[in-house]
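pasting for ref. prot 1 ->
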Amino acid sequence: MATSGLLKRLATNGREELRPSGVAVQSRPSTQGRGTRVGVLWILGDVVIVLAALMIAVRGWLGEGLFGADSPYRTNIMFHNHPTVLLGCLAWFILSLILVSKRYHLYGPMQLRNTLHEQRLTIQACLTAGLLLSGALYIVRGEVISRGVVIITVVATTVLLCVRRLMWRMMMYRRFENGLEVRNIIIVGTGRVGQAMRHHLDSIRHLGYSFKGYVQIPGVDSDNPAVAGDVLGSIDQLLPLARQFFADEIFLSASCDAHEVTRIVTEAREAGVDFRVVPELYDGLAWNSPIEYIGQFPTIPLHRGETPVIGLFLKRILDVFLSSVALLMLSPVLLAIVAAIKLESPGPVFYCSDRIGKKGRVFRCLKFRTMVADAERRRSEILHMNERDGVLFKVSNDPRITPFGHFLRKYSLDELPQFLNVLRGDMSMVGPRPPIASEVKRYDLSHLRRLDVLPGMTGLWQVQARQDPSFDSYISLDTAYIQNWSIWLDLKILIRTLSVVAGGTGS
């Protein structure tokens, strides 16, 4: 295979980054960023599970809490009289569980193992950590630690970890079915391996991959009528195509010039797109290559983009919490608005429109109806009144808006139903405004950057330049938000949004 030498150099030494000149320099491993952050979350979850299991064991076996008062079993002796032994054994069990789980790759992407395999490895990791704990108790002569507590702690940890992993997997499968959190892929090469890879991923939907198309390699791939409709372009257009189709990963499934692979890996690293090689099984790779299986296919990750997993996890928690609290606290206001809309004019209470969300996914965006029932039919009559440039459309004194609709828009009350979109995961509290399909069709390739993240109820543009008619300002602010995103920036925007809404500048 033409790339075998390059693969050995790229795949067997995660610390080497090849430059086009062929000179290897030391660099931080590019394939560890997202995995490390995901692993931290899972490790923290395991620590919480172990502590919960210990509490269950102490309560169930001894009949009191860990810090309980005097009882026939005198649990407080374990902690108050021998804190070093208890805390040391607890720390050793947690450390053993983490190290064994990491050795079994349980902190890696769940696509790399099926459900039964993951459950078996979880049980094996817990029992191994339990044996290491038992050995430590024997060495330090920890007779003060109840053996019943040890056994129940290990068993409870095993059950809770298995249940947690199973529930997480089932939840992710459901999100994949709804088109959420899927990873878009482009396969380079239309040969036998590329076609087999495509059909394999399509047949195993729970892996969470969505095939977007093939990219041909000139001189290697021949015209094949079976895949002609799925070919997006040639390899020299790979990164623009990845941008256009919101690709998260690129799979190389055919032989390619070594310099071409180096160029693609470099560009993928700059664009934040993951890059994997799908080697042909008979070509043979270095024995110690870091091979990861996607379903039944071996792959070698040459680059894995940086993703702020912990930050995105906290952002989602913030979204769920704030949207739930808002819906609960504002329920009387929502009911009053529903009644007022029904009394003012005939038609539905809610206005549902198809919007383009993250990675081009279409979702139904909810708003309170602020216009007459036939507003869409009358849109063509007022196109000449548009006050915005570029692809945006805005008319301040839109004759289709009802009197109560003007009030709702002024204080942004018409957007309150979007808390449901946030709760469902279609939107976030903060992010770029969700565009309609007609706007996206007129986007330049660079404008698609704003679809890399979830759209938001509010955002940097809404609080800083909402009345600015410039489309360039609209795009630049959204791009600046994406490039500089942090939880603190979201909180600042949310605070500023309150002042904007209170000032009645939402119309």
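and prot 2 ->
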Amino acid sequence: MAIGALIIGDEILSGKRADKHLAHLIATLGGRGLKLAWARYLGDERARLTATLAETFAGSDIVFSFGGIGATPDDHTRQAAAAALRRPLCAHPEAVREIEAQFGAAARPYRVLMGEFPEGAAIIPNPVNRVPGFSVGDHHFFPGFPQMAWPMLDWVLAQRYAALAAPPEDEAAIIVYDAGESMLLPLMQENVMRFPDLTLFSLPAFLPDGARRLELGVRGDPARLPAALAHLRDGVVALGFRWEAAPRAGARAAPG
């Protein structure tokens, strides 16, 4: 199953707030050997949110959505999810109990609106203020506040996807100088053919003096990386280009 992310909020798109969810989600998934397949940033626009959610609900991906589940007029995610599913928005009894337990008489008439979810949704407990998020199938909706959303993400992963993990993965690379990607393209193509189970990557850059620098490497099964990297390294040498090992964890690059 592929994993996607929706990060919702006008304040993100306007630059008023910097998104922190994407980096955290990537790191959290990485701890399980999992990768994010896609991510989208969306504003608080109900029609666009509804269209996007209709598309993702129609697929089979696991989707983690951050933001827009409050009760103020600029929050549209709950309503958009219901519209995308063509289900009514209903007060979830368990969510309402949680909100009333937290806020007492002050829960009504407005705070309880945050417990209205698409019909058939399940709640995601909120350990900070007890205002839940919700899940529908493999779509999981969290508030935009990281201090709430991230523990809720951990809960969903533990409760719903405890067995979901991937084999260990690593990467290895070299730095190639004064070579453009087109010059190394036949070598890259041969590497992909020889090691189809790995992912080749090429990251070009220009140095301040105008010289070219290319990070060339492979990602995947750690046991397979040495042979694939050796093939790239030998090919670079055969073409007459200078290379260095790409530094890892602050290690100094060793010249080739």
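The first helix runs from residue 10 to 13.
The CA atoms of residues 190 and 196 lie 10 Å apart.
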